[in-house]
Amino acid sequence: MNISKHEQRVLHELALGGMIHHERCDRGKIRAITCVTREGFVLSDCTLKLFLRLKKRRFIRSQNGQPYRVSRQGIEAVRAQLNQR
């Protein structure tokens, strides 16, 4: 499956233990996101458009209103990096 460089960067950080915090508007739609790495840094490459694309492809998921994390499909889709092998 073709994954852009930005998608791969975000999935890689999520696979290492990062998460995406989301904020909803009154009607329930997601209006703002913040991608946080395992070390607590904010990843600026993760935009709302990229988030919606990852969610549509089912590479990320949320359970019971918790922050979004990488799914099994997302782990399989991301290529192995040196610190992930």
Description:
The protein contains 3 helices and 4 strands. With 85 residues, it is α+β, with helices and mostly antiparallel strands. The chain has one domain. It has a two-stranded antiparallel ribbon with strand order 1-2.
What labels describe this entry?
two-stranded antiparallel ribbon; 85 residues; globular; alpha+beta; two-stranded antiparallel sheet
Describe the SSE topology.
Layout: H1 5-15, E1 19-24, E2 30-36, H2 48-56, E3 60-61, E4 69-70, H3 72-77
Antiparallel strand pairs: 1-2, 3-4
What portion of residues belong to β-strands?
15-25%
Give the terminus-to-terminus CA distance. 20 Å
The pLDDT mean sits at 90
Q: Which structural class is indicated by helix and strand composition?
A: alpha+beta
Order of helices and strands: HEEHEEH
Shape: globular
Binned, the helix content reads 25-40%
Number of helices: 3
Number of structurally distinct domains: 1
Strand order of the largest sheet: 1-2
Q: What value does the Rg take, in angstroms?
A: 12 Å
What ranges have pLDDT less than 50 throughout 5 or more consecutive residues?
Answer: none
Q: How many E-type strands? A: 4
Largest sheet: 2 strands, antiparallel
